[in-house]
UniProtKB/TrEMBL annotation:
Keywords: Cell inner membrane, Cell membrane, Membrane, Sugar transport, Symport, Transmembrane, Transmembrane helix, Transport
Lineage: superkingdom: Bacteria
Keyword flag Ligase: no
Gene encoding the protein: rhaT
Transmembrane segments: 36-56, 96-120, 132-151, 172-194, 214-232, 253-273, 285-305, 317-336
Source species taxonomy: Bacteria, Pseudomonadati, Bacteroidota, Bacteroidia, Bacteroidales
MF term (GO), any: symporter activity
GO cellular component terms, semicolon-separated: membrane
Protein name (record): L-rhamnose/proton symporter RhaT
Matches recorded under Pfam families: RhaT
Amino acid sequence: MNTFIGLLIIAIGSFGQSSSYVPINKVKEWSWESFWLTQGIFAWLVFPFLGALLAVPAGGSLCQILSVDVSAACKAMGYGMLWGVGGLTFGLSMRYLGVALGQSIALGTCSAFGTIIPALMKGTDLFSGSGLILLLGVCITLAGIAIIGYAGSLRARNMSEEEKRAAVKDFALTKGLVVALTAGIMSACFALGLEAGEPLVVSGASELFKTLPATLMVTCGGFLTNAAYCLYQNTKNKTFGDYRKTSLLVNNLLFCALAGLLWYSQFFGLGMGKSFLEPGSVMMAFSWCILMALNVVFSNVWGILLKEWKGVSSQTITVLLVGLAVLIFSLVFPNLF
């Protein structure tokens, strides 16, 4: 029962993340870099800070938690800066491939690296016992994502350039694939940052929220990377004027805040969900992969709702649904043993 509750909480957070790109359409007359920086303030600073405060026990402080192990805090932030490159290119993958295909490829790569590397760092034998189950679970997840990727290639093959542009304004398959793969590899550093930040817990901290201070350090590192790039783009493209469009400011801040809250909900849900999983179990080790798989499932549901798959053949839709079914199976596979 606890495992089901944990998975449900992770799924709710995943749905929030997969919905976080929808408010983009409500942001008016801002360049990409202006939107990305503004939503990043909410996604990587404001809400992670508020979430981390929930881990502070009565009579304690957030500074006390972060100073428990300064080295761990710095490592988490360092991994966050590397993850920031992934977060930056992740946003670009949506721009070039759309919500469905962009998230599928980036999150597939992220799920594999973010699950396998921490297991190897802990000395897990991936070819026997629970390590083998973990490896097989990752392989099933990757198989599902590969099938979805194939559906995306069929879509690109069967659509005219006009149809591609109508579904995704800046569609560019080759550029998008390179960006999405880079995003996936670098985004896996978030999982490494969470592992590095595990010592950031003090006595009396709630089990539900104890991972959130580490999450804050990772997102702070990611914010630094993204802010530097976005400010550079603001300078290069002369788009600082976006922030002075006072008639749009309330609308755009509102939807940037909503996007940031929805994005952060995945890690808020992951932290809470893991507290219901058995420590040291395969499901615990597989939790990162579960989150990424759910993100792919929900992002493709949004892709269908946003008509990114409009005009494709029934064969392509069938391939897409098979891929989604494989991903859903991967969520429960480790719990079968």
